[in-house]
Fold:
Amino acid sequence: MGAGVLAGNLLGFGRVAVTAYLLGTHSQADSLAVAIGPIDTLNAVLLNSVVFAFVPMLTACPDARREALFRQLRGVLMALFSAAGALLILAAPWLMRILAPGIDPAYFPAAVNNLRILSLSSVAAGASAVFCALLYTERRFAPTAFYAASLNLFTIISALALWRVLGVYAFSLGYTAGACAQLAVVWIASRRVRKPGAGMASAVHWREILAKPAFFAVYALALGLNITFTRAYATHAGPGMAAALDYCMRGVSVPLSLLVNPITNSLLPEIARLRSALKLREAFRLIDRTIALAALAVLAGCAFALAFRRPAIALFFQHGNFTAQSTALASAVFLGMGPSVVGWALLEIASRSLFALDRRWPPVLAAFLPLVLNAAITLRSGSFEPDRLGLGASVGLAAGFAVLFATMQTRRSRWMKAG
Structure:
C-alpha cells in the first residue's frame, strides 16, 4: 500500500508537469482542470465509500455466502455506476455551466467533451471499487494499491503520444484508459480469490446495499465540493486561474495522502478493536495522540511549503508553456490554498476515527461547514486576487476540524457511557 501511494504521487507530479509543459496556464488548461478535478473527487468518493462500507460486510460472511453477497453487490452497484455515467454524459453541458461558470466561451465545448470522456472513468472506478472490496477481504492489497499510479501513468503516456493528434483530449483519454486498465487488473486478481457458491443466495436487500456507504459518500462529497466551489469561482478570475489552482492542489494532495492514508489505515483497525473490547477511553486517548502528532507534522510541512513555494513550483513546472509568469501566478494561488492542508488532514483523521467508532453524524455535519464558510467568505470578499482564491477553503477546513474536535471533547463522556 505504501509503495502504491508513493508511486501514485510521484507519477501524479509527472502528470501535472506534463500538463504544465503542454498547456501552461491558458484557457485550454482550464478546460481540462474544470473537468478532471471533479471527476478525480468523484472517483475517490466511489472507491473509498464502497471499500469502507462493504469490506466489513464481506469479511463477516462465510466463504460461500461471501461469493453470493459479492455477486449481488456487483450487480446492484454496476447498474448504479453505469446509470450515473450515462447521466453525466447526457448532463455534461448543464454540469459544466455549474463547474466552470466563468470559463472562456471559446473553450466551453472542450470542457464539456473532456467531462464526457472522463465520465467513463467513473464507471470503471466504481466497478473497480467492488472488486477492491473483495480483494481487501482476502488481504490482497497489491492489485489495488496502484490505482492512482495507473491513472497518472496512462495519462502521461497518452498526452505525450497523442498530443499532436488529439490536443487536450489526449489527457482525458489517457485518464479514462488508466481507470479501465486498473479495472482489468482487479478483475483478474479477484478471479483467483473467489470461492464457489453458485447455489447460494444473498439475503441482503438492495436498499441496504445502497444505504450502507451513504454516510461516508455524503461526507466525502461535502469535502470535495469545497474545492469544487473554489475551482468554479476561479474561472471568473481570468484565463488560467482554474489551471493554476489545480497545479497548486498537487502541493496539497500529496502531503495529504502521504500523511492521512498511512495513519488512518493503521489507526482504524486498532480503534475498531478497542471499541469491540469496550475500551473507549483508550480509543479516544489514541485518537488524541495521533491528532497531536499529525498536527505538528502538517504545520511544519505547511510552513516549509509556503516559504519555498516559488522556487519549488519553478523547479517542477516552469518548462515549455509554463512560463515565469505562470510560476508567479501559481505561487500566489498557493499562498491562500496551501494552508488548507492543515485543516483538511486533521479533519480527515478525526472524521475517520469517529467512523470507526460508529459515530457517523458528527463527521458528516462537520464536512459541510468548510463548504458553507468557503462560500460565505469567498462571495463576501468578491476578490479575484490569486492569493485570496483559496482563503475561504483554508479557513473553512480549519473551522470544520475545530468544531469536530470540540464535539469530540464535549460528547466524549456521553459516548463512553453509551458504549
